[in-house]
Design brief:
mainly beta; eight-stranded antiparallel beta sheet; 12 strands; 11% helix
């Protein structure tokens, strides 16, 4: 994984795909996206910049703090409004760990049932059929 640490050692990041502070992750994606985990030491802050046309949000894994001045805690999901490309995150007394997801919107229809999410009912039925036949997620079976 790509790894980042701030000079003052208050921020650590693991980059899975895309980039964070010019550090890139090894995973490849079909559409542009950045996925990374940030760990902030107690009472520290970071300013994060993502493309303003992308959908951006994060899951609070551990700790408490604030995002753009609003309180956050473990288990919260913060979704930004695509009205700016910079947001501020501060950690509380126990530190903060967040999982950031940012990506170009697909603007495609969504059809879902159970754990399956596809763009139409036919794809949904095909995915379920692959699962029933033991072929779901097996690349060698669809090539």
């Amino acid at each position: 994984m790509g790894r980042y640490q701030s000079l003052d050692e208050t921020i650590d990041a693991i980059v899975y795909t895309g980039a964070f502070r010019h550090i890139t992750g090894p995973a490849k994606s079909h559409t542009p996206m950045n996925i990374y985990k940030l760990k902030l030491q107690p009472n520290s802050w970071i300013s994060i910049s993502e493309n303003m046309t992308w959908n951006t949000g994060f899951l609070v894994l551990n700790g408490t703090g604030s995002a753009n001045g609003e309180s956050i805690e473990s288990g919260d999901f913060v979704l930004f409004n695509n009205d700016g490309e910079r947001f501020e995150v501060e950690s509380g007394d126990e530190g903060l760990e967040i999982f950031v997801l940012a990506g170009e919107p697909l603007n495609e229809p969504v059809v879902k049932q159970g754990p399956y999410v596809m763009t139409n009912k036919t794809e949904l039925l095909l995915a379920y059929g692959e699962y029933i036949n033991g072929k779901f997620g097996r690349e060698e079976d669809i090539m």
